């Protein structure tokens, strides 16, 4: 073969292998994005409701279970929507009316550093029973649904119901009612849960045992389920910290705002 012929052959081989490398890269990138959905947290918030819940009455503006914009657990200064929206660690992706009753509003946040998504649903206060049942169903791995989003012109889905971490925030409804147990869905893995409600370890404990979920933070007494405690716990969870460190983060945040003493906060917020 002449020198010119060898040069042409080498160029053909180089182009061929370059194409293979690019094809392999695109295939791997495409399959990775399809097979590895982003980590997700699903937060169920039962809006405070003076009329329909057995809570110590709060100011009417904060205790209107039909008004998420001003509700104590959602739109107020330390409510989930407002607090996470104001945090520099989180980006508000969207916030809109719930797709169906009893969810009045849904907000989705993205953790800037890790890419973890947080889907928060605000349930009408009078529908606290539905909020509790939906939370238990999510903890059991049932009724998993996808939330489709578009980011950087790419479509992807966030898993809800089957989220990596499932959270309940609000009044402890089991102080007022009971619901049928929700049994774990086979083959769905064991989810982690946080329950920020009064005495949630005692009241939610038997139900969560049925779901197969593992609590990483819940409570032993009366508490204010405001969002600073939730954010502190989630910070530790995203960082992959052990439960005792998550507990410490949450207790320190609770003490900072409630001025109850760190030791008292550690007795209130427990991980087992």
How many domains?
1
Terminal CA distance reads 76 Å
What structural category arises from helix and sheet content?
alpha/beta
User: Oligomeric form of this entry?
Assistant: single chain
Number of distinct beta strands? 10
Task: Explain the layout of strands and helices.
Blueprint: H1 3-35, E1 40-46, H2 80-86, E2 90-97, E3 103-111, E4 117-123, H3 128-139, E5 145-151, E6 154-160, E7 165-169, E8 192-196, H4 200-211, E9 214-219, H5 227-238, H6 243-258, H7 262-268, E10 269-270
Parallel strand pairs: 1-4, 1-7, 7-8, 8-9
Antiparallel strand pairs: 2-3, 3-4, 5-6, 9-10
Helix pairs in contact: 5-6, 6-7
Summarize the structure.
This protein is of the alpha/beta class and 272 residues long. It has one domain.
Protein described:
- By secondary structure, the protein is α/β, with parallel strands linked by helices.
- The chain has one domain.
- Strand 8, helix 4 and strand 9 form a beta-alpha-beta unit.
- Helix 5 runs antiparallel to helix 6 and helix 6 packs across helix 7.
- It is globular, with a radius of gyration of 23 Å.
- The chain starts with a helix and ends with a strand.
- The N terminus is likely disordered.
